[in-house]
Each structure stands twice: as C-alpha cells, then as structure tokens.
C-alpha cells in the first residue's frame, strides 16, 4: 500500500506572470515534495513590471472551492496570501473555522513590490482582528508589520518589539522578514516562537531585481515543511535556505522584478524527507 501523499493548500490570488501568489506557492510546494491544492480568492493581471488589474472572487465561489477541497483532500497545512478586501478576508476566516486544514501560515500580503495594493486599507483591521488569532505562523515583511502593529520599524530592536506585539494579537509564532532593509549587507529575519524562544535567520543580501515572490516562496516552503511534520524552527530555517537558493540561482524571465528560480536545490541534510 502506498503511503498517503502529504497534501497542502494555498488560499491566495493568482499572478498571470507566474512569479508570485498561487503560482509561486504551488511551484514551491511541488519542489518541496508535497501535493499543492489551491483556493483562488482573487485573480490578478500581473507581470514582472507590475500589477495591471485584479478582481476578487465572489464569496460563493470561495466557499465552493473550500468545500471541494475539504470534501475530498486531507490537507496537512495551509497558508493564506493575497486576500484583496474585507469581504474576501471574512469569507476566508469563515471557511478556515469551518474546516480542519491543519496549521495555518498567514502571509499578510498588502502591497506588491511594484507598489500595487493587494489588500484594501480597510481590510487591514479585519486581518488583524479576525485572521491573526487563527494563525500558527505570521510572516509579515517590514511595511506589513508596521501596519499591523501601528509602529515604525527601522532597527533590529524595533523588529523584536514588533514581533512581541504581533504575538499579543493572538498569533503563535512570528517571523518578521527583513528583505526591505536594503541598506543592510545581510537579509535578516527575526523569529519569535510560541515557546518564547527567539532568533535571527540571516543570509547574505543578493544584489538583484529578481526578487518577485520572495515572501510567497518563503511562506509556502515553511507550510510544506510543517505539513511534512517538521517543527516550526526547522521549517523556518529550511524556508530561509530555500528562498536564498531561489534568489541566488536567478533565472531570466520578464523585464522588471523577475521571478525566483524555484528549481533551486538545497543540500540533502536540509531536505531530509
Ligand atoms: N535581495 C535579497 N537577498 C537575500 N534575501 C532576500 C532578498 N530579498 C528578500 N530576501 C529574503 O526573502 C524573504 C522574503 O522577504 P521580503 O522580501 O521582506 O518579503 P516580501 O516578498 O513579502 O516583501 C526573507 O527571508 C528575506 O530575508
Ligand atoms: C497574487 C499575488 N500575491 C502576492 C503577491 C506578493 O508577493 P510577494 O512574495 O510579497 O512578492 P512581491 O510582490 O513583493 O514581489 C503578488 N505580487 N501577487
């Protein structure tokens, strides 16, 4: 008898250009050897140059996708990405409460690298008050952590304080990503675990414009590792190694912020599944 394949779910928006959102999530999960399903909550017309347009899915369609997935698959871990607006966040929260989809990683996507808003301003409070308390892991970048905590974050000390504030909002584990700190030679993310343990995961900053989808890739890799049964710290460390490899081994696609190389491999001891 064949063991059941580890199944994961992304709940996010699509990227027609293939670099971010559901597309980056599925490529990452596939590369990390788990099966990926998707509840598409928004569709974007997007490429490496920017987001040209987007449309959120109607509530009924979101509900039906959740029912289809939960009615057939055994999801071991899931993640959220772009959630567009208040109605979409509320629909996702309702369905996350309804079905057992395993540990939840929330990537609170707000603004794309090109500057386009992927979450309406009035939906930030809904994410903070309704979605965050459901999250096993929250993965904000610096501007997202600033919005969610209502504080300016410019220093490492401010990152650690913000992580504590985010935990107070009901999130179990937090990783604040430092990718936007472009003046630093290292790309350092701060992790605060449920146990109170905290640490930095750092890697050399790579000087490239090909960083479209870094946040999605990190959060979906961590989700895949959690689904495979890795503990939170190990899953985060593998996620960081994988995202570094996908940036370091760049591919040439498009004319703007190019996508990552999801084929990039990390060494066997980190893959160990
Ligand atoms: N130029 C870079 N070199 C190395 N790592 C990077 C670089 N840019 C981002 N990262 C890493 O990619 C991950 C995603 O970070 P970030 O870009 O801040 O998220 P987002 O895509 O959500 O804005 C983090 O682990 C961060 O440290
Ligand atoms: C549909 C969609 N979802 C998420 C993002 C943002 O992805 P992220 O990994 O934060 O990468 P950048 O936008 O910062 O390149 C997106 N662009 N589209």
Automatic annotation (TrEMBL):
GO MF, any single term: ATP binding
Pfam families: Phos_pyr_kin
Any one of the GO BP annotations: thiamine biosynthetic process
Catalytic reactions on record: 4-amino-5-hydroxymethyl-2-methylpyrimidine + ATP = 4-amino-2-methyl-5-(phosphooxymethyl)pyrimidine + ADP + H(+); 4-amino-2-methyl-5-(phosphooxymethyl)pyrimidine + ATP = 4-amino-2-methyl-5-(diphosphooxymethyl)pyrimidine + ADP
The keyword Membrane appears for this protein: no
UniProt enzyme class: transferase
Ranges where the Pyridoxamine kinase/Phosphomethylpyrimidine kinase domain occurs: 15-261
Matching InterPro entries: HMP/HMP-P_kinase_dom, PM/HMP-P_kinase-1, Ribokinase-like
Keywords, sorted A to Z: ATP-binding, Kinase, Nucleotide-binding, Thiamine biosynthesis, Transferase
Domain of life: Bacteria
This protein's GO CC annotations: cytosol
Listed pathway(s): Cofactor biosynthesis; thiamine diphosphate biosynthesis; 4-amino-2-methyl-5-diphosphomethylpyrimidine from 5-amino-1-(5-phospho-D-ribosyl)imidazole: step 2/3; Cofactor biosynthesis; thiamine diphosphate biosynthesis; 4-amino-2-methyl-5-diphosphomethylpyrimidine from 5-amino-1-(5-phospho-D-ribosyl)imidazole: step 3/3
EC number(s) per entry: 2.7.1.49, 2.7.4.7
Family classification: Belongs to the ThiD family.
Alphabetical list of PANTHER family matching this protein: HYDROXYMETHYLPYRIMIDINE_PHOSPHOMETHYLPYRIMIDINE KINASE THI20-RELATED, PHOSPHOMETHYLPYRIMIDINE KINASE
UniProt protein name: Hydroxymethylpyrimidine/phosphomethylpyrimidine kinase
Protein species of origin: Lentilactobacillus rapi
Gene designation: thiD_1
């Amino acid at each position: 008898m064949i063991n059941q394949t580890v199944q994961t779910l992304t709940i996010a928006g699509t990227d027609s250009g293939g670099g971010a959102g559901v597309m980056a999530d599925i490529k990452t999960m596939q590369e990390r050897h788990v099966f990926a399903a998707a509840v598409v909550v928004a569709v974007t017309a997007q490429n490496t140059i920017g987001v040209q347009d987007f449309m959120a899915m109607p509530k009924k369609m979101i509900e039906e996708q959740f029912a289809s997935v939960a009615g057939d698959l055994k999801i071991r871990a899931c993640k959220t990405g772009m959630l567009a607006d208040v109605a979409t966040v509320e629909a996702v929260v309702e369905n996350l409460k309804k079905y057992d989809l395993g540990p939840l990683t929330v990537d609170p996507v707000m603004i794309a690298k090109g500057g386009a808003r992927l979450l309406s301003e009035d939906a930030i409070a809904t994410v903070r008050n309704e979605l965050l308390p459901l999250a096993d892991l929250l993965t904000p970048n610096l501007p997202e952590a600033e919005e969610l905590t209502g504080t300016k974050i410019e220093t490492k000390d401010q990152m650690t304080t913000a992580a504590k504030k985010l935990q107070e909002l009901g999130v179990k584990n937090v990783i604040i990503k430092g990718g936007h700190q472009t003046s630093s030679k290292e790309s350092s993310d701060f992790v605060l675990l449920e146990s109170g343990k905290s640490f930095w995961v750092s890697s050399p900053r790579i000087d490239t414009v090909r960083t479209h989808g870094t946040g999605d890739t990190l959060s979906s890799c961590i989700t895949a590792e959690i689904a495979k049964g890795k503990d939170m710290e190990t899953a985060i460390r593998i996620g960081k190694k994988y995202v570094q490899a996908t940036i370091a081994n760049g591919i040439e696609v498009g004319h703007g912020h190019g996508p990552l190389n999801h084929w990039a491999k990390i060494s066997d001891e980190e893959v160990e599944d």
